[in-house]
Give the backbone structure.
Amino acid sequence: MEDDEALFYNPKAPKQVYRRHLPHWSQAGRIYFVTFRLADSIPAKRAAELRDQRQTWRQAHPTPHSVTEQHEFRMLSSRRIEQWLDQCTGSCLLVDPHCAQIVVDALTAFDRHRYELDRWVVMPNHIHVLVRPYETHALKAILQTWKSFTAHAINRHMARRGQLWQKESFDHIVRSAAQLERFREYIRSNPEKAGKYAAQCRLGPA
């Protein structure tokens, strides 16, 4: 993927915003850093702590929120989640080679058809990916396809039932070539944080 300025967030161009717990921004033709994780990847106590932190922030920042405040809120949540994910808590189903391969196959299945992949990593309990959706394919739909397909396939392989993935993913429109390089390096080095599971992490492209 070329480091073209057209890949990066343009504050002057139109964008779409939808919200669950976090605001999600979309802008056609851009590259995103995306994280999605297993439903049990963060212990209930820490999930409650994060909800309390978000509520405290909202009370201190009444609406409407500025662009800067929205970005601050997103990054506040994501930093804590990243720290917890790297501790490899929960079932860590993705250390199973077959489960990890299901995810790799899903990510790469429509590369150069619906989207363009840059760097990605399959960690024990979460995924990071840099992806640029093509104009006619929304990031939200791409994520739904990845999660739906892999959930059915992994549940079948593991003879389990129920929710596999956390419903809400984290996505961030990359702001610049420098930030893109930081995300690439973060993905490349992420398996080093997996401790005893490091050898089971899948990094791509090689």
Summary: The chain has one domain: 5-40+91-204.
